[in-house]
Write a structure and sequence with these properties.
Strand content: 15-25%
Distance between the termini: 81 Å
Function: Produces ATP from ADP in the presence of a proton gradient across the membrane. The V-type beta chain is a regulatory subunit.
Family: Belongs to the ATPase alpha/beta chains family.
Domain ATP synthase A/B type C-terminal: 354-454
GO biological process, one term: proton motive force-driven plasma membrane ATP synthesis
Number of helices: 12
Helix content: 25-40%
CATH class of the largest domain: Alpha Beta
CATH topology of the largest domain: Rossmann fold
Protein name: V-type ATP synthase beta chain
CATH architecture of the largest domain: 3-Layer(aba) Sandwich
Length: 456
């Protein structure tokens, strides 16, 4: 028997507070009636008979006398079926594309099912993005968590759309591949941009979208990535599909988390974020992976903007601890009209070594990746020296490194947001760049590989 409470104590920000509540459960969904309007909320705090709940549709128009609350005894669940592909939903899983409601025999808890570490399968095989800097130097492995660290004003929006449009499983086996895309706190214009790009490329039928806009209630931001990951879990582990989850922007999610924590009067931690930010992010990131008992996989590509381009900020800092590498975007490269502006030196993919090379990509892939990192790192040292003594006074070999650096940035990293490169094409461009240098400088590549691919 469900009880209905005919008034609330107060409404503050995205929260409502009730007193005299018995047997409430943390995370329980409540139904809120404001006059003739129905809203949903979730219990987020319990102290004896005192309960705080966040309201997904916001608390505007609520008062202590015109609001009634019914406790459902259930967690937050959404309906999911195979028909979600090609559809668009809001941050609480309601259709917003005019396609009508989604009918399903089952409903799924958006808080997910923890993956037992013993049941995890080690990620293998790579996902091709068509972007040379990522495919060759920061290879995205199926089942990996690889975040993209961006900054305000950098083209991460365009990069996200490019990855969604171009990503595919690169293997000979017959596999089903789809993308779950979640946008958190974006403007209406950005939301329209993503949908337009997906429709232009024809990938829209293979994408399920969860859109949370900047003018939506802040409480909805917390559920948006969880809805997307729940859809991914269904498609991967019940429909045996390989799913790439792209979430932008995780910083908006964390800002929403901070706002709700402040409304709950919690003691703040670093930069005002709640002390449980690490475990909360981990509850999202760790839902990605592969299971030994299932054919499908979930690969997670979260995108976040670093406030003031500070990589030590709590959001990128904690994300780096949980995930298996990062792709860092460079403001300097972006200012030089190099797109996508991937700064390869502070970027890495910790799992790429086990998913590239012979049998996965091409036998020269590991060697050329190591050599490009090494040679480009030396370019930075020589550029610093050139600022002191001038480029004309550099040695002949240093001038070749400067030429290599310019070619590497202009032809390898720079490719625009519309170009989709095959892996072999990206590797060949890498060899053209390395062939600017003498063979003696290629100390990270086996001699037999040099003889086969080096271009005089």
């Amino acid at each position: 028997m469900f009880k209905e409470y005919l008034k609330i104590k107060k409404a503050q920000g995205p929260l409502i507070f009730l007193e005299g509540i018995r047997e409430a459960k943390y995370g329980e969904i409540i139904e809120i009636s404001v006059g003739d309007e129905k809203r949903l909320g979730k219990v987020v705090r319990i102290e004896e008979d005192f309960v705080a709940a966040q309201v997904f549709q916001g608390t505007s128009g609520m008062s202590t006398k015109n609001t009634s609350v019914k406790f459902t005894g259930k967690p937050f669940e959404i309906a999911i079926s195979k028909n979600i592909l090609g559809r668009a939903f809001n941050g609480v899983g309601k259709p917003i594309d005019g396609g009508g409601p989604l009918f399903s025999e089952k409903k799924y808890n958006i808080n997910g099912r923890p993956i037992n570490p013993v049941a995890r399968k080690y990620p293998r095989n790579f996902i091709q993005t068509g972007i040379s800097s990522i495919d060759i130097l920061l290879t995205l492995i199926r089942g990996q968590k690889l975040p993209i660290f961006s900054g305000n004003g950098l083209p991460h929006k365009e990069l996200a759309a490019q990855i969604v449009n171009q990503a595919r499983i690169s293997s000979e086996e017959e596999v089903k591949f789809a993308i779950c895309f979640a946008a958190i706190g974006v403007t209406r214009d950005d939301g329209a941009y993503f949908r337009e790009k997906f429709e232009e490329s024809g990938s829209i039928d293979n994408v399920v979208m969860f859109m949370n806009y900047a003018d939506d209630p802040v409480a909805e931001r917390i559920s948006t990535p969880r809805c997307a990951l729940t859809a991914a879990e269904y498609l991967a582990f019940e429909e045996d599909m390989h799913i790439l989850v792209v979430v932008t922007d995780v910083t908006s999610y964390c800002e929403g988390l901070r706002e709700i924590a402040s409304a709950r009067e919690e003691v703040p931690s670093r930069k005002g974020y709640p002390g449980y930010l690490y475990s909360d992010l981990a509850s999202l990131y760790e839902r990605a992976g592969m299971l030994k008992s299932k054919k499908g996989s979930i690969t997670f590509l979260p995108i976040l903007t670093m406030p003031n381009d500070d990589i030590t900020h709590p959001i990128p800092d904690l994300t780096g601890y949980i995930t298996e590498g990062q792709v860092v975007l460079s403001r300097e490269l972006s200012n030089n009209s190099i797109v996508p502006p991937v700064n390869v030196l502070p970027s890495l993919s910790r799992l790429m070594k086990d998913g590239i090379g012979e049998g996965f990509t091409r036998e020269d892939h590991p060697d050329i990746a190591n050599q490009l990192f090494s040679s480009y790192s030396k370019v930075q040292e020589i550029r610093s020296l050139a600022q002191i003594i001038g480029e004309e006074d550099l040695s002949d070999i240093d001038k070749l490194y400067m030429k290599f650096g310019r070619y590497f940035e202009d032809r390898f990293i720079n490719q625009g947001f519309e170009e989709n490169r095959r892996l072999e094409e990206s590797l060949d461009i890498g060899w053209k760049a390395l062939s600017i240098l003498p063979k003696e400088e290629l100390d990270r590549i086996d001699d037999a590989v040099i003889e086969k691919y080096y271009r005089k």
